[in-house]
Write a structure and sequence with these properties.
By secondary structure, the chain is of the alpha+beta class. The protein has 15 helices and 20 strands. It binds adenosine-5'-diphosphate.
Amino acid sequence: MFEKILIANRGEIALRIVRACREMGIRTVAVHSTADESAMHVRFADESVCIGPPAARDSYLNIPAILSAAALTGADAIHPGYGFLSENAQFARIVAEHGFAFIGPAPEHIRLMGDKVTAKSTMREFGLPTVPGSSGALPTEEFARAAAQKIGYPVLIKAAAGGGGKGMKAAFNDEELREAYQLARSEARAAFGNDDVYMEKYLVRPRHIEVQLIGDTHGNALHFGERDCSIQRRHQKVIEEAPSPGLNADQREMIGALAANVIRKFGYRGVGTIEFLYEDGKFYFIEMNTRLQIEHTVTEMITGIDLVREQIRVATGLPLSYKQEDVQFQGHAIECRINAEHPESFIPSPGKIAGYHAPGGLGVRVDSALYDGYRIPPHYDSMIAKLIVHGATRNECLLRLKRSLEEFVIGGIQTTLPLHQRIIAQPDFINGDYDIHWLEKFLGRG
Ligand code: ADP
């Protein structure tokens, strides 16, 4: 087992990893920018190293500085968390070349799934159904128009290097397509330094359903059921739940087994998620995330399994400690992502926390690096807390979520807590009757 892990991340996920390490008797090294000197992950880790100025490219994305910190502190593994360098195949390769273990999949698997065009064709070969779309990248507007004629409107232009919903534009006719194509390309260029785009049929009322997976280096692969992440704004998840109110037990078992089988054939090591859109009883693969996800928590709540612990174990070369039949689902869990943003305009609201009280009690979990008096720096993602609630039934979970949101106090800044209160009071949400466009429509109604 590893003796010391360096965590190349910040915020709640760095803290989440520190917690898993503590319980496993593994020492931790936090890295941080100058803006994060008093951050919670720095305080809770056994050691810390400052790796650069506030801008992420100079600190949390600074590969030489991170490797130096690992060498300096004698760490034997690096956990990338999510975001930042977590899906950077080159980073995974350099980490291994320098004699550290990378807590994640093999670099070639990260690269394969990082390009969404090759990811789709690979998954099709493995037998997963995909959304009808262009067979490859679309180099010009003419190619895009021809593809749209073939697929039929509405269509969605997506960035091959996509992530975080960036570089994604829908078009309902030729005229809209021209603008969507140019916009998607320039957004993709700005966000990923790669303006390759491809096209898919734009599904009008799908749910986003993803399967949590893990594989080890002994040929084992498991699924932990699905999560429903259809409550989204700008293609970004806002609320996630497990199990999905839209699936029955047979569909759950079918898609879980199918996805686990794919990563087993792949020889995939580590945690990963295969994402699908689900419409009219059919699943369509959209992408695979080769890392721990923000919403892994809801799966932990209904399975009682510590996914970070399993992730670390398989990275050391140990076999999985569970078999598929050991993975049992109990009750229901919902997660709300709480952002430091105005709840209506969504304008970021960094600043100093004045008054903080996290909800508690049976079935309530808060993953956050906030504390009273903490100053949220303006340089990073605006997500500041995850409230995760578990109940024996979905109804119990909803009642618990309502009272937990009421208890949650985050003073001094604007947060999206009121937005979550509004969403969970809606009959559609209470009935589990929503798709990926529901939240945008709800917000549009004002
Ligand atoms: P990213 O990598 O940017 O997160 P994804 O491919 O995972 O992109 O898609 C993010 C979200 O965008 C999905 O959860 C869904 O809401 C929406 N989306 C993606 N593909 C389609 C599609 N073909 N039709 C409709 N919505 C889509």
